[in-house]
Amino acid sequence: MYRARVLVAFLLLALAGLLAALGRERQRAASLGRGPDRAGGKAERCVTCHVRPEEDPGGAHARAAVGCSSCHLGNPLAFDKARAHAGMEPEPGALRTVARTCGRAGCHPREAGRVASSLMARASGIVSVDRFAFGEIPEPRGTASITDVLAKGERTPEEDHLARLCAGCHLHALRGNRDDAIHGNGSGCSACHVARKLPGAVPRPHPPVDARVTDDRCLGCHSRSGRIALTYEGLYEVERSQAGACGAGGEAATLHDGRPACRAEADVHRLAGLACVDCHLHTDLMGDGRAYEHAEEQVEITCEACHGPVREGGETTWGGARDPVTTALLHSRGETRPPAERVRLGRRGTPLWNLRPTATGWVTFRKGQGVALATKQTPADANHLLRGHERLACSACHAAWAPTCDSCHTRFEPAGTQWDFAKAAEAKGRWVESSDGYAAREPALAVRADGRIAPAVPGMAMELDATAAGGARLSRNLWSSYDPHSTGKKARTCASCHAAPRATGPGTRVGQRSLDAKELARVAAVGPCLSCHAKASDRVWRDFAASRERLARGGSTCTFRGRGGPGSSVL
Amino acid sequence: MILGRLTFGLLAVAVLSGLALAPFWSAARPLESLEALNGATPWGFFLRAVHALSSWGFLAGTLAHLVEVLARRSERKLPPGVWWRSVLLLPVAVLALLGGFLMRGDAEAQAALAVAREIAATVPILGRGLGALLLGGPGGDLAAVALHHAGTFTLLAWLLTAEHGRALAPDLRSTVLAALGSFAAAGVVPVALGPAVAPDGALLLGPWYLLGLQGMLLHLPAAAGWLLPLSLLLALGATRHLEGRARSALLAFAAAWAAAFLAFTLRLLLAAR
C-alpha cells in the first residue's frame, strides 16, 4: 500500500511537471522566428526574428554579411529573446563598448582605438579654453577631457558650466542624454557614420551605416561655438530678437534645431558641392592616436595641400605614401592608385586620396558621388606674391565673413533647472547666456600661435557672473583665431584689412596674439595708399618700403596729404 | 537504505538522459549546440533539464547518504577498501558534474575551465599533464572534457556506486521513482545557460556545488582548490578506522569544513547580486 501511494504521488508530480513543461514548450515553439539562423558564415539567430527589410542597414554592414551581433552584441546563438538580448549594446559605436563592436578584430580596431583619443571624443580644447575663460587656469592648455569633467563628484563653477552647456557635443554623449547634437543617432562612431533620420522621414528601425558622412551629421555639433558648419552652409545664427531682421540681402532661416538664423554667402567649396569630408582627412576627424589639445593641432588639411603652393615634402607618389588606413579605405571602395601617381599630403603625411593629378591639372573627387572638380592651383601672381603678405594664411584674405558675437553675458541662476549632461537629467540651477545680437561680418585678423596671420573673432568675449555658483565675476575679452569656413573665390578688399579695426585682447590659444604696435602701424600705413593704388600689381607694392623712401625724398607724384598718408608721420 | 537506492536510480536516469542528449552536443560549438537544443529542438530544454536535475540529484543523494551513514555509524559495515572507494565516489561525482558544467561552453563555463586548469597546474609533478589529460589543451575544443564527463567519471561513478550498493544496476522501482521525480523537477525548474560573453564587471559564478570553493579561492592560492577537498576526503575516509574522540574530531572537522563551504557559498551569492 505504502509503495503504491508513493508511486502515485511521484506519478502525479511528474504529470504536473510535464504539464508545466508543455506550456513552456508551446511558448518556445510560438516565439521561434522563421528567418534564417546564419549570417556572414556563422550562427546568427537574431535574423530568425529580425527579418524585415527595413531592419537591414545594407551596404558593407548588410545584415546578411555581418549579422546583428557584430555591432549590437547580445547572444547571437540564442533562440530565446531574453537570452538573445542579454548584454546587448543598444547604441553600437558607443565608446564604452566600441572595442567589442566597431573596433572588434577584423572590423575597425585601428580607427576605434584612435577615435577615443581624438578631440571629438575628448573635447579637451573646449575644457581648457572654458577653464581659462573662468580664470581657473593661467593658460588655455591641458589634456583634461570632457569625460574627466563629467566624472567628477564635486564640480567647480567652470566644470558645472561645461557639464550643462558644452557636454552634449562629444562622442561619449549617449543617446537619450539630451541628444539634440547627435540627432539621436547614437554616440561614438554612430554619431557620424549612421545616416541621420531627417525630419518627416518614414521611421526606419535601422538606418544605413557607412563611411559616406554627410554634412548634416557634422552640423549637430559644429553649428555651435565657432559655428563653422553653419558658416560653410552660408548661415549664421541670430538672437530671437533679431529674427526677421537679417539686413540687406539676408534671408531669414531656421536651423535644424529651431534656432533662428540668417542666410549669407556659402563657402565656395560648399557651392561646388564639396562635403566636409571631401576636404577633411580621416586623421582630422578620427585623430591619429595622439591626444592633441586643440583642433588646429589635430587637423592636417590645409588650403595649400590642395591648391598649392605645396610645402616641401607635401607631395610624393603613391609608391612613397605610407598610410594603412587610406590603403584600406581605397581597397574597400575597390580603388587602386598606380605607385608612380603623384599624391598630395596633409601636414603629417596623410595622403589626399580623392585629389588626383590629370593631364589638365589636379582634380578633387567628391567622396560621396565621385564627381570630379577641377582644383585650381594658387597662381604666382601679384595678389599672391605681394611683399609683406608672406605671413598671411589663405583664409586671412579669402574668409569672406565670420559670425561674431561681441557681447555675451553669462551668469548662473540658482533658481530654475537646466539639463545636466553628467546626470543625464534636469538639475537645479542654470547658466544663462544672453547677447546683444550676432552679426556676420568680415573677420578681424590676429597672429596665430604658428606666427601666421589669420581671421579672428571674439571668442568668449563675455561678462561672466559665476558668483551664485561659488565662482567669480569676470569680464573677458578673448579672441579666437580660426578659419570660419566662409571661403570666397574673391578675396576681401585690401581696405577691409588695412583700414579696419583689429582684434585686441588675449587669444584663446597659447602664443596667439593680436597684432602688435609695429605690425598695426605697418598695416595702417598701407590704408591711405589704397584709394589710388588698389591693385596688387601696382608698382608701389613691389617694394613698399622703397616706395615710401622715394616719397620721403620727394621723388613721387603722390598728392595725398591726409592723415596717415605719405606726408604724415606714420610713414 | 532507500536514499542510497534512489541515488543509484538518479544516476541511471542521468546516464540515460545523457545518452539521449549526446547527438545534440558539439565539442567544437558547445554553446551554439546547447542554445539550439534549448531553443530550436522540441522538448530539448526538458531533456536537458532532466539530465541536469537527475545529475544534481545524484550528487545531493550521495552527500545525503554519506551523512546518513556517518550519523548511523554504519561505515564499519563496509570493508575498508569499499569504504574508501565509496568516499572516492564524492569527488568522482563532482568531477563528472563539473565536466557537464564545462561542456556548456558559455562565459561561466569558460571561466570555470580556466580556473580548473589553474588548479590542476598546482598539483606537484603531475599538474600540467593532469590538466591536459582531463581538460584538454588550452585553445582546443571540449572533446577531452566530454570524454571524461560521459566516459571516465560516469563509468567510475557507476562502478563505485554498484560496488557500494552490491548491485550492478539500480532496482526498477528506484529508477522509475527517480525518473518521475526528475520529470517533475524538470518541468518546473528551468536549467539556464550562462551568458555567451562575460558582462563587464559582473561576477561569473561556477556550478552551485562548487560555489563555496570558488568563494574560498578568492582569498586562497589556487592549490587550495585541490588541497581543501583532499583534506575533507581524508578526514571522511579516516572515520572508518577511528573511534571515540578521534572520530568525533574528524567529524567536527568535516562539519566545520561544510559550514565554511556553505558560508562562502552564501557570501558569493550575495556578492553576485
Question: How would you describe what is shown here?
Answer:
The complex is a heterodimer of chains A (571) and B (273). Chain A is α+β, with helices and mostly antiparallel strands. In chain A, 28% of the residues lie in helices and 15% in strands. Chain A has 22 helices and 17 strands. In chain A, strand 1 and strand 2 form a beta hairpin. Chain A is globular and about 135 Å long. Chain A starts with a helix and ends in an 18-residue tail after the last helix. The C terminus of chain A is likely disordered. With 273 residues, chain B is mainly alpha-helical. In chain B, helix 10 packs antiparallel against helix 11. Chain B is globular and about 55 Å long. The mean pLDDT of chain B is 95.
Topology at a glance:
The complex is a heterodimer of chains A (571) and B (273).
Chain A: H1 2-31, E1 38-39, E2 42-43, H2 63-66, H3 69-72, H4 81-85, H5 109-115, H6 119-122, H7 124-133, H8 146-151, H9 157-166, H10 190-193, H11 215-222, H12 228-233, E3 235-237, E4 252-254, E5 260-263, H13 268-271, H14 276-279, H15 282-286, H16 295-298, H17 303-307, E6 315-317, H18 324-332, E7 342-344, E8 355-358, E9 361-365, E10 372-374, H19 394-398, E11 402-404, E12 408-420, E13 425-435, E14 439-441, E15 444-447, E16 453-465, E17 473-481, H20 494-498, H21 517-526, H22 544-553
Parallel strand pairs in A: 12-16
Antiparallel strand pairs in A: 1-2, 3-5, 4-5, 6-7, 8-9, 9-10, 11-14, 12-13, 15-16, 16-17
Helix pairs in contact in A: 7-9
Chain B: H1 2-21, H2 30-40, H3 44-72, H4 80-102, H5 107-121, H6 127-135, H7 143-165, H8 172-188, H9 211-217, H10 224-238, H11 244-272
Helix pairs in contact in B: 1-3, 1-7, 1-8, 2-3, 3-4, 3-8, 4-7, 4-10, 5-6, 9-11, 10-11
